[in-house]
Amino acid sequence: MFFMHKCKLINSYKGCILFLFFIFNINESVSSQNAEDFANRTFLKKLNHDSSYLTLKRKIESEFGHAKPGRWGQFVKGVDENLSTKLKYIAFTFDACGGEKGYGYDKELIDFMHTEKVPATLFVTGRWIDRHFSTFLNLSRDTLFEIENHGLNHKPCSLNGKSIYSINGTANAEEAFDEIEGNARKIEAITHHTPRYFRSATAFIDEACVRMASELGITTVSFQVLSGDAIAFSPDSVIVKNVLKDIRPGVIIIMHFNHPAWHTFEAMRKIIPKLRLQGYQFVKLNKFALVSH
Ligand SMILES: [Zn+2]
Q: How far is the CA of 50 from the centre of ligand 1 (A)?
């Protein structure tokens, strides 16, 4: 409407086209400027000159620099995996990891969630945001979704460089802090929403990192239902079976929205009507308190 009004005022077809071109270019340059400002490397450099970030980092380093990592796994002490409810509410969570073969965007899946009005929580890494800045902005403004923290560089959170599935974890407390707090601040700076939840890359994490996140006011979230959609080209029938067999009130389901060529969307198309028939409703994580099982 605003553009049409302006076009009428300009009162010539050519002038109108020029005006729209001008506006388009301003928007483009603003968003590319922003994307550049928030890119992982630039943003982390900026954070490391920010006194509030540095003070907190020194405090965390002094506390965790020589701490014992404790147990390593997806369900270690302090990690939550369930919604606190006995009613038929469940939460779909979708990760966007990034990485050599993981920089896709499953638009078909996100469109389906819209058509079906299924809310979900999206765990997003800083590096995936860098590849999909305008898509990320749109998702963050979409009330159907809740954006949460999947780490700055998709490094499983570890105090001593543990690795899993050939992915190297953070090497020390300083890197772990950047992975958690760096991405939380990046999401906050872009979206003006402070993430409350952190899912470590691969969901593996050590107990010290869980405590670190907690001190930063962040709850570490794992899952109770493993869809298996991250196994490349897993058939949709397998994903459907994996999800449906473990469904019960309060479960958090882990899936992905960064592999459009895999079968998450096809599986969801079958899962959602079946769960609705069973009387389940879908919520974002922030609807309930979280608990471990
Ligand atoms: Zn991931």
A: 28
Span from the CA of 60 to the centroid of ligand 1 (angstroms):
24
Distance (angstroms) between ligand 1 centre and the Cα of 22 equals: 39
* pLDDT tens by residue, 191-222: 999 999 999 999 999 999 999 999 999 999 99
Question: How buried is 166 (Cβ within 10 angstroms: 0-12 exposed, 13-18 middle, 19+ buried)?
Answer: exposed
Shared-domain flag, residues 251 and 112:
yes
pLDDT tens-place string over residues 231-248:
999 999 999 999 999 999
Residue-number span of the structural domain to which 233 is assigned: 41-291
State the total domains in the chain. 2
Containing 264, the helix (H) or strand (E) segment is: helix 264-277
pTM: 0.89
Q: Around ion ligand 1, which residues have CB less than 5 A away? A: 95, 97, 201
